Amino acid sequence: MKVKPKHDRLLEWWHSIWTLRRDIPWQLSLLLTCLSFFLVFLWYIWKSESAVGNVSQSTFFPTISEILEGVVTIFTDEDRKVWIDMGVSIRRVFTGFLLAAVIAIPAGIYMGAYRIWEALLQPMVEFIRYFPVPALIPLLVAAYGVDEESKVILIFIGTFFQLILMVSDEVRRVSQELVKVAYTMGANSMEVLFKVLLPSALPGVFDALRLCHGWAWTYVVVAEMIATNEGLGIRIMKFARFVQMPKVICYLLILGIIGLALDLLFRYLNQKLFHWAKS
Fold first, then answer.
1. Comparing C-alpha atoms, which of 92, 116, 60, 43 is closest to residue 218?
2. How confident is the model at residue 92 (pLDDT cuts 50, 70, 90)?
């Protein structure tokens, strides 16, 4: 068996990684991921160190050592505020997001499967989804008060109208050929819906949940503008008010870590539950 020269194999590998939608080795993927974090880290070190001596800049770009001091202060706080804030925000996000998912998934499936549901629901959903969610705060406060209900409803509104459209689009993407074949083989509408459309659309629906879950974490910061003393969002605003930027950055990192961890969990579950979809 003839072995290709090394430079030919390198050239072939180089072309393969630049081929559209072609997988790359996991080692390369991990290396590039670490590189992106490292470059951002290097940029921040350069930015913060160059700001030393400039009061207006150094206030907003604390050095790495100042951020580490902030981390120690936050996690050694006797009142354990950071843990309480994380617990409160996670509860609000999951309540609002689960409520949105429970309603949006079946509604989106019917909207994508039946034209009559699409005609009834889609124009209204498209209309409401362009409302800026922060602008709804006065209405939510008037309708639900300043307790937890208004915060959860705000997260629900922020994710529901996006999720229902994404679910319906995933159902519409299912090949019409599959539907025709199912009807040809004698399936009725319900069988086509639950045995063809739904299984085919589920991997995409799960991916839509992953994306909308990320938006829920954005809206929790907005929701915590409504009369509260606990939560990651309101704590960031309180620290920012007193220009405590090391603590602000610490809380932003916590939000990023929680979001990234949940995103990876969604991707892992998607691969495990719907591994057949890749083929």
1. 92
2. very high
Q: What confidence score (pLDDT) does residue 2 get? A: 64
For 269, residues 6+ apart whose C-beta sits below 8 A from its C-beta are: 206
Q: Sign of torsion, CA 177 179 185 186?
A: negative
Rounded CA separation 100/216 (Å): 10
Residue that has been written with the tokens 């991916």 in this structure: 207
Q: Tell me if 107 sits within 8 A of 121, measured CB to CB.
A: yes
pLDDT of residue 21: 75
Distance from C-alpha of 46 to C-alpha of 99, rounded to nearest angstrom: 44
Phi, psi of 52 (to 5 degrees): -60, 130
Q: What CA–CA distance (Å, rounded) separates 196 from 160?
A: 25
How many CB atoms are closer than 10 A to CB 95? 18
Closest CA to 99 of 165, 159, 143, 150: 159
Q: Please tell me the pTM assigned to this model.
A: 0.84
Whether the per-residue pLDDT at 51 is higher than 90: the answer is: no
Euclidean distance between CA atoms 67 and 248, whole angstroms:
9
pLDDT digit string, tens, across residues 225-266 = 888 889 999 999 999 988 899 999 999 999 999 999 999 999
Q: How does pLDDT run across 17-27, given as a tens digit for each residue?
A: 888 878 888 88
Q: What does the block give as tokens for 28? A: 């390369």
> 270: Cβ–Cβ under 8 A, 6 or more apart, which residues?
203, 206, 207, 210
User: Which residue in the block uniquely carries the two structure tokens 């519409």?
Assistant: 172
Residue reference for tokens 């006797």: 78
Token code pair at residue 266: 């969604």
The pLDDT confidence band at residue 170, using thresholds 50, 70 and 90, is very high
